[in-house]
Design goal:
With 202 residues, the protein is of the alpha+beta class. The protein has two domains: 2-106, Serine Threonine Protein Phosphatase 5, Tetratricopeptide repeat, CATH 1.25.40; 125-183, Chaperone, DNAj Protein, Chain A, CATH 2.10.230. The chain is built from five helices and eight strands; from the N terminus they run H-H-H-H-H-E-E-E-E-E-E-E-E. It has helices at residues 2-26, 30-41, 50-61, 65-79, 86-100, and strands spanning 109-115, 124-128, 137-139, 148-153, 156-161, 170-172, 181-185, 194-200. Strand 4 and strand 5 (156-161) form a beta hairpin. Helix 1 packs antiparallel against helix 2 (30-41), helix 3 packs antiparallel against helix 4 (65-79) and helix 4 (65-79) runs antiparallel to helix 5. The radius of gyration is 29 Å and the shape is elongated. The mean pLDDT is 90.
């Protein structure tokens, strides 16, 4: 009973710290916000996934870039594109790169969601056929590529040119019909028709 009351008390306190930390972030007081986040993480309570974004943002503002990147990546793994702060997280990843990589472009860039350039918004794109690996043909499943069929008779084995592949050992791929490509879910936008791009700030 005592443990249950302690956990309930910790949860209430963690929620208060969380709300206060967000208010401090809005006020630009990231050092104070970081202190509260550290206190929250030391508590044995269930935390919302969004705390990874808020803490990652706070760490970025206090120039702890490696830790910031770790928490932002964790948020993206947990929530994916459906996450409320997905776009902001991508922007933070870009900002971290600019802050830590001397070779990164120094001009202002923003991450924006736009129609996928690869599939033009359809969500589908031609890609190398997975069945024939882009060859347009597959090994004949009747003769197994041997080019002949074997018939056992009382006089021994008789060999016939494979009727399916006409003695070629290969046949046209039934998936791409010899075109070497198949239309599949666009890899760039994962079939959503929209993707994220870096754009110069206007």
């Amino acid at each position: 009973m005592a443990n249950a009351q302690t956990n309930k008390s910790d949860t209430t306190q963690a929620r208060l710290y969380y709300e206060q930390a967000q208010k401090l972030m809005i006020a630009g007081k990231y050092i104070q916000a970081e202190v509260l986040f550290v206190k929250i993480f030391k508590m044995d309570v269930l935390l919302p996934d969004e705390i990874c974004y808020y803490y990652g943002k706070t760490l970025f503002e206090v120039k702890k870039y490696a830790q910031s990147k770790s928490f932002i990546e964790k948020y993206i793994r947990l929530k994916g594109e459906e996450g409320e702060y997905y776009l902001q997280s991508l922007q933070l990843e870009l900002d971290i790169e600019k802050a830590t990589n001397p070779q990164a472009p120094k001009h202002c860039e923003k991450v924006q969601r736009d129609t996928c350039h690869q599939c033009r918004g359809s969500g589908l794109a031609f890609q190398s056929c997975t069945r024939c690996e882009g060859h347009g043909k597959i090994i004949c499943d009747l003769c197994k590529g041997n080019k002949v069929n074997i018939e056992s008779t009382s006089f021994g084995e008789r060999y016939f040119t494979c009727s399916r592949c006409q003695g070629m050992g290969v046949v046209e791929c039934p998936v791409c019909e010899g075109t070497r490509q198949e239309k599949r879910k666009c890899a760039n936008c994962r079939g959503k028709g929209m993707a994220y791009y870096r754009r110069a700030c206007k």
